[in-house]
Amino acid sequence: MRILLIEDDKKTSDYIAKGLTEAGHICDVLADGRDGLFAATSGSYDVIVADRMLPSLEGLSLVKSARAAGTRTPVIFVTSVSGIEDRVDGLEAGGDDYLVKPFAFSELLARINALGRRPPPQDRQTVLKVADLEMDLISRRVSRAGVEIELQPREFRLLEVLMRGTGRVITRTMLLEQVWDFHFDPKTSVVETHVSRLRTKIDKPFEVPLIQTVRNTGYSLRVGG
């Protein structure tokens, strides 16, 4: 499974991420609430694990906003906030499970696996569309104006992130984290190089460009520049 972990305590996040990776899962880690909300609403995850006490946007607000935006991914809160009312608040905010720290990793893993076994919602989005650009997440096919476009796996993931964030600015840091799983700046032009290749396939053969550069910030996928 692909799991999003939103936890600002590095010791805890390293512990959980290491265990999930060893169990065969893919784990993306973010330490900030707002970044976590963006990833939750724009990424394709099977389960989200979130702390309640997060910088910039606390966990309850994060999950409420994600649910309001249509995100149906199961969420398990992992937190030291342990009162009965706190647990109720977490579940009513849109959480599916609530685990209090400290905990045994085996219990967390069992709960994640249980959430992952739930059948997906019937209305889960499997096709992304922006203008005449279409991406099928199941068949992994991309087309524009009816013309099929062949993308490499990294290009596909890059385009998916941009399409899920249509109309919003996607920063270079966000792309490094969500496409390459880099939580540091590699000091290379890897993002710029891949965006250039993607433009050659997605924009160059067509009249209207969709991938826009936001100077000194990142990129945005939108119609009309």
From TrEMBL:
InterPro entries: CheY-like_superfamily, OmpR/PhoB-type_DNA-bd, Sig_transdc_resp-reg_C-effctor, Sig_transdc_resp-reg_receiver, WalR-like, WH-like_DNA-bd_sf. Residues 2-116 form the Response regulatory domain. Residues 125-223 form the OmpR/PhoB-type domain. SUPFAM superfamilies: C-terminal effector domain of the bipartite response regulators, CheY-like. GO terms for molecular function: phosphorelay response regulator activity; transcription cis-regulatory region binding. Keywords: DNA-binding, Phosphoprotein, Transcription, Transcription regulation, Two-component regulatory system. Residues 125-223 bind DNA. GO terms for biological process: regulation of DNA-templated transcription. GO terms for cellular component: cytosol; protein-DNA complex. The modification 4-aspartylphosphate is found at residue 51. PANTHER family: REGULATOR OF RPOS, TWO-COMPONENT RESPONSE REGULATOR. This is Response regulator. It comes from Mesorhizobium denitrificans.
